[in-house]
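User: For my dataset I need records formatted as: sequence, then structure tokens, nothing else. Please produce one.
Assistant:
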Amino acid sequence: MVSALSRLVDRVGEGPVSLSVSLTDSQEVLSLRARIESLEKELDALRASYNHTEFLYRCEVVVNTELLDLCREHGIKVRRSMFDRLRE
């Protein structure tokens, strides 16, 4: 907003300047604010779900790594695909 106003002021004296102003109905503004609030709540819920899923995945990786270590220590053969999963 400030840079637009500053450009307008800089052009004063160069010729005709046109200025356009539009007003928005307060009901529309309130409706849009409510929509923003709703979307922010939805985003917060999605972030919480993502964080929980990521936590569960990390826990699974730790448990799988410990299981692979135990199997290796006791000479139990493990499918090769189990090692490939650790690199993903």
